[in-house]
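Case 269 in the screening queue. Each case pairs one protein sequence with one candidate compound; here the compound is 1,1-dimethyl-prolinium. For every case the pipeline is the same: read the inputs, emit a complex structure as C-alpha cells, and attach any notable structural observations.

Predict complex for case 269.
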Amino acid sequence: EATTNVSEEMEYTITGIEPGAGQTQTNEQAIAEYESLAGWNQETSSAAAMLTALGDAIENEEPIIVAAWSPHYMFAQYDIKYLEDPKLVFGEEEHITTIVRNGLKDEMPNAYTILDRLYWELPVLEEALLKAKEINFDFETVAQQWVEENPEKVAEWTEGVETVDGTSIDLVLTPWDAENFTTNVAKIVLEQQGFDASLTPVDPAVMFEAVASGDSDATLSPWMPATHGSFYEEYEGQFEDLGPNVEGARIGLAVPSYMEIDSLEDLEP
Ligand code: PBE
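Case 269 output:
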C-alpha cells in the first residue's frame, strides 16, 4: 500500500492533449463518472507537450496520469500501462474508419474504390509510426518509403481502378501520428492514379463538418465508436462510412508501470 497519496502528488490533474481532441471529452466524462476522480482537473495542451511531461515524469520516477492511445509509439518508448476502466467510459476496442462525402461514389468512383480498400494491420502501422519518430515525424517521407516498400499492397488497392487526369480530391485529417501516416499514404496512392490530392489538417469536429458539407471529399481519421461517436451521430446520414482502415485501436488513461495503481478506481478524490 502506498503511504503517500499519489493522487495528491499528481495534484489531482490528468495530463491531457489538444482541447479539440475527442479524447479530451472522454477524459472529462471519466472525471464526471468516477467517484475516485471527483474534483480532478484535466490540463490540456498538445500531444507533444503531454509526451514531454510523460518523459520527464518517468525520468524522475514521479507519478503522472496521461491521455493515452494506441497505436502510438508511446507504448514502445515508455513502460506505461492503461488504467482499468470498469465503467467503460473509454469503450473497449476502437477502430479508425474512412468516411466520404455523399455523392463521391457516383462522382469519383475510382477514388471511392481506393478509399474503400485502404487498410493497415496494427503491427504494420506501429512499425511505420516508430520510423516516423526516427526521422522527426516527416510523414511525407515515411509514407513515400512505405509505398515504395509495399508495391503488392498498393497493387491490391488499385487493382482494376482506372487512372484519372488531375481530378482534385481533398482529404481532411486530424493532427495525430497514425492519421498523418495513413492519410499521407492515401495521398500518394491517389496521386499515382492521377489525382491531384490535397491534405487539410483540422480538429475532429471540423473533420466531420467538412465531409458532411461536401467541403472535403473524405477522411481516414475518425475513431469509433467511443472517441468521436458524438460527432459521428451529429452528422450521421450526411456522409458515407466505408468501414475501418485500422482495427484494434484503443484510448484510455495511462500511468508509468512503476505506479502501484491499476484502475481508475484506485485514484482518490
Ligand atoms: N487521438 C486519440 C484522437 C483519436 C483518438 C488523440 C488520436 C482524438 O482524441 O481525437
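Case 269 observations:
- The chain has two domains: 6-92+251-266, 95-248.
- The mean pLDDT is 97.
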